[in-house]
Design brief:
Blueprint (H helix, E strand, L loop, with lengths): L4 H12 L4 H13 L4 H7 L3 H4 L7 H14 L12 H20 L4 H5 L3 H25 L12
Helix pairs in contact: 1-2, 2-3, 2-5, 5-6, 5-8, 6-8
């Protein structure tokens, strides 16, 4: 998996602006598309820290699923959800369980961080970058143009 240096610096810039994990992942993608959707980024705050800092499922995974749905989900009455969306999310979940869950003993934020905020600084950026890359891979493999957000013809 190739993680780009510019993605890392972009992540750091967003973290410096006091965005959190789930917000960062979506904002990185929106920035690449040249879009601003503050309502979406605000809504993503509910996933931060394992669902509102409850320590439950990691915000990188939940926001990754949301990011896939941003491309493949139904957003208006006229749109049709991509029938592959749930399979794409399942692929992400299985990858996350294998990549992160096996390394830290689970996919909950509290397990990954081991109740130590220092681990947040050390672990979260890499988890976010890897999740971002995996989401990109899944979208491209399913025919999505990352910049337009549309299925390629």
């Amino acid at each position: 998996m190739n993680i780009h240096t510019e993605d890392y610096f972009h992540l750091l810039e967003l973290a410096h602006q006091e965005f959190s994990c789930s917000q960062i992942l979506l904002q990185m993608r929106l920035d690449e598309q040249g879009k601003e959707i503050p309502e979406l980024i605000r809504a993503m705050a509910g996933l931060v820290g394992g669902l509102g800092y409850c320590g439950k499922i990691c915000g990188a995974l939940t926001s990754g699923a949301c990011l896939l749905a941003l491309y493949a989900g139904k957003g208006s009455a006229e749109e049709v959800e991509d029938s592959r969306l749930n399979a794409m999310i399942e692929e992400l979940v299985k990858w996350f369980e294998q990549e992160v869950g096996s390394q830290y003993g689970g996919t909950d934020c509290s397990i990954i961080l081991e109740e130590n905020l220092q681990n947040r600084i050390q672990r979260c950026p890499q988890i976010l970058l890897k999740t971002n890359q995996k989401v990109k891979e899944i979208l491209i493999a399913n025919g999505y143009d990352l910049l337009s957000g549309k299925l390629e013809a």
